[in-house]
Every structure is written in structure tokens, then in C-alpha cells.
């Protein structure tokens, strides 16, 4: 039972939802735009296709994902008092995306704000909601990652345009009951701002520019330590994880990482194959799909970990709703 307005001993994810636009952009399609091949993209990154929003905005996709999360939770807009949208690609900045989502769904008077930490945005937003609810500053939150990266993709740059897609994923987060264990573990969050120049979106309608090999090398040295520490803070051994949902940047990062850490019993999210890199949407999108397909058992510990522009990183172990 929730204590309205009072502090809570912890939070949990009640339900997830996701949305992807209908238009598919395959590797074959990209060979007609830039000098690339299906073989190169598949072997170097693992992507086969990604989705492209045509007339839909970041707010439209965020609204659709959040609406599904609410329906999956069996809740209504009246049950929500906080909306956080993680995004780095929204062209529309005022009103912020969170207010647009709240208005679209008919959520009245929520605390509503956007948060931009690039590809780690969902995990930062989840931690922020968790902290707000535990402090008694919110009761039940919609935490959303939504991106229209194709708006900020340079389709003359073959090193980046093959990577990105559009999507949204959302979670409903609420206080646990007094006799329930918290379902959102302690966050590990941080950044290495000295490396900010290796992944940028700058200027009016600027494009994503990435020094891929440098970011890749950073993931190899840093991620194993950071994820091991995230598990340690949650009191969970990597071998006890039921799910491993890392930011979907490259299968050559994700799969060896899960193996190196010893996450041998975890279902490893590989949504990048069908969705590409969707930045802040990638983790909630992948998690929502694993749940929808029945690939994760309710209650199992699942690692969420995001990393990207900043360079920023954040993660936590959650109990699967
Ligand atoms: O989401 C935020 C966090 N981001 C990441 O974690 C991304 C980390 N980085 C990566 O995943 C990889 O660096 C990429 C997937 C971005 C690139 O893969 P890579 O194996 O590091 O390729 P590269 O940039 O070192 O390029 C290797 C070769 C180059 O040719 P030469 O110089 O060896 O002749 C590139 O010009 O591949 C060439 N190349 C391509 N060839 C065909 C680069 N892009 C393409 C392409 N098609 N699309």
C-alpha cells in the first residue's frame, strides 16, 4: 500500500511499455545512401535494421510508450504525479517533452521535466524518480526514454548514420509496500567530462558526431569495472542476474561484456539487431520487449546500464516487473 506524500523505503518498476515507428530502414536500404554493406554493419555492430519516425515527434513516441506502460500497470493518468523524459534529440524544447506527454495523456499537475545525459538518460531518470519517491516528493512516476535520432543523423556520414534509430520506452515507478523489498537498486552514476568531445550534437540542428573507436576503447576499459560495482551495490552477483540490459550501442560491446562479468544465467538483451542504437530509449525499449515476449520472469534481478555522450554512465539492478 502506498503512503501518499510520505517518504517510502524503496520503489519498484510496476510495468513497462514501448513504441517504435512503422517505417523500417534496413542495412540494404543504407547501401543505397552511403558506401556500406550489410556484412560490414552486421559484423562490426550487429544491427540489421532500425526504425524511422516520419511525422511523429519525440513527444508522440514518448506518449505512446507511456500510455502502454500505464495500461500494462492497470493504472490511469490520475495515478501519476511525476513525468520524467530522458532525451537528447528533441527539436521541440519548450514546453518540454514531459509536459507535452502529460498533456497528451491527461495527467494533471505532475512534476514534469526532461533530462539529458545522452544514452544513459533512462537510468539517470529512473534513479531520479526513485530518489524523489523515497523522499516523499512524488508518489508514482512515469520514467521515459524517447529519441528521434534520425532528426540529428548525418546521412552522408557512413560511420554514424548506420547506427541510429527512433523509439521510446517507458516505466511506471511507484513506492513499495511496507512489507516489500525495494525493486530498484542503488544507482551508480557518473561521467568523464574530459572525454566530452568524442560524442557530440552541437549547434542549431546539429548532427551526431562520434569518434567510435575511442568510445569503443573506453567501453572496454571502464564498463566491466562500473557494472561490477553496480551489482556489488545491489548485493547481487553477476551470475545471479536474470537479465542483462545494457545500452544497445554494439553487440561487440554487449555480448563479451556479459560473458566477462560472468552473467552466465542472464538473458542478454540484443534488441540492437532490430532497432539499432536508440540512445536513451534503448534500455527501456529492450527491457519492455523482453517482458512482452515472456523472456524474463517476474521478480528476477535485471541489470540496466547506460553509457554515452558526456561521457556519462548510469546503472542499477532492478527487479523485473
Ligand atoms: O551510443 C553511445 C555510445 N557509443 C558507443 O558505444 C559506440 C562505440 N563504438 C563502436 O561501437 C564502433 O567504434 C563503431 C561501430 C561506431 C565503428 O566500428 P569500428 O570497428 O570501430 O570501425 P572504425 O570506425 O574503426 O572503422 C573501421 C573501417 C574504416 O576503414 P579503414 O580506415 O580501416 O579503411 C572505416 O572507414 O571501417 C570503415 N567504415 C565503414 N565501412 C563500411 C566505417 N564505417 C563504415 C561503414 N561501412 N558504415
TrEMBL record:
Keyword Aminoacyl-tRNA synthetase: no
Localisation per UniProt entry: Cytoplasm
Classification via SUPFAM superfamilies: Thiolase-like (SSF53901)
Region of interest (ACP-binding), ranges: 248-252
This protein's pathway: Lipid metabolism; fatty acid biosynthesis
Main location (coarse class): cytoplasm
Subunit structure: Homodimer.
Domain (Beta-ketoacyl-[acyl-carrier-protein] synthase III N-terminal): residue spans on this chain: 113-192
Family: Belongs to the thiolase-like superfamily. FabH family.
Organism: Actinocatenispora sera
Main function: Catalyzes the condensation reaction of fatty acid synthesis by the addition to an acyl acceptor of two carbons from malonyl-ACP. Catalyzes the first condensation reaction which initiates fatty acid synthesis and may therefore play a role in governing the total rate of fatty acid production. Possesses both acetoacetyl-ACP synthase and acetyl transacylase activities. Its substrate specificity determines the biosynthesis of branched-chain and/or straight-chain of fatty acids.
Listed name of the protein: Beta-ketoacyl-[acyl-carrier-protein] synthase III
Gene Ontology BP annotations: fatty acid biosynthetic process; secondary metabolite biosynthetic process
Amino acid at each position: 500500500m502506498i503512503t501518499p506524500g510520505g517518504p517510502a523505503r524503496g520503489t519498484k518498476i510496476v510495468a513497462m511499455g514501448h513504441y517504435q515507428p512503422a517505417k523500417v530502414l534496413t542495412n540494404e536500404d543504407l547501401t543505397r545512401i552511403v558506401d556500406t554493406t550489410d556484412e560490414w554493419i552486421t559484423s562490426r555492430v550487429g544491427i540489421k535494421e532500425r526504425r524511422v519516425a516520419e511525422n511523429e515527434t519525440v513527444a508522440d513516441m514518448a506518449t505512446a510508450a507511456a500510455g502502454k506502460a500505464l495500461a500494462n500497470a492497470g493504472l490511469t493518468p490520475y495515478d501519476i504525479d511525476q513525468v520524467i523524459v530522458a532525451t537528447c534529440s528533441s527539436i521541440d524544447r519548450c514546453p518540454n517533452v514531459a509536459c507535452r506527454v502529460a498533456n497528451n495523456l491527461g495527467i494533471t499537475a505532475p512534476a514534469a521535466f526532461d533530462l539529458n545525459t545522452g544514452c544513459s538518460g533512462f537510468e539517470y531518470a529512473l534513479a531520479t524518480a526513485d530518489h524523489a519517491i523515497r523522499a516523499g516528493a512524488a508518489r508514482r512516476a512515469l520514467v521515459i526514454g524517447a529519441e528521434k535520432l534520425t532528426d540529428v543523423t548525418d546521412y552522408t556520414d557512413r560511420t554514424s548514420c548506420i547506427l541510429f534509430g527512433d523509439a521510446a520506452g517507458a516505466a511506471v515507478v511507484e513506492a513499495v509496500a511496507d512489507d516489500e523489498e525495494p525493486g530498484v537498486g542503488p544507482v551508480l552514476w557518473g561521467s568523464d567530462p574530459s572525454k566530452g568531445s568524442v560524442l557530440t550534437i552541437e549547434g542549431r540542428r546539429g548532427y551526431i558526431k562520434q569518434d567510435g573507436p575511442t568510445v569503443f576503447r573506453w567501453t572496454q576499459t571502464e564498463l566491466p569495472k562500473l557494472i561490477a560495482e553496480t551489482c556489488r551495490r545491489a548485493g547481487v552477483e553477476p551470475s545471479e542476474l536474470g537479465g542483462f540490459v545494457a545500452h544497445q550501442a554494439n553487440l561487440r560491446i554487449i555480448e563479451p561484456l556479459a560473458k566477462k562479468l560472468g552473467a552466465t544465467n542472464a538473458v542478454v538483451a540484443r534488441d540492437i539487431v532490430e532497432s539499432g542504437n536508440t540512445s536513451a530509449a534503448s534500455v527501456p525499449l529492450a527491457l519492455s520487449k523482453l517482458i512482452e515476449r515472456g523472456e524474463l520472469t517476474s521478480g528476477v534481478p535485471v541489470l540496466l546500464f547506460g553509457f554515452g555522450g558526456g561521457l556519462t554512465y548510469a546503472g542499477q539492478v532492478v527487479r523485473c516487473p
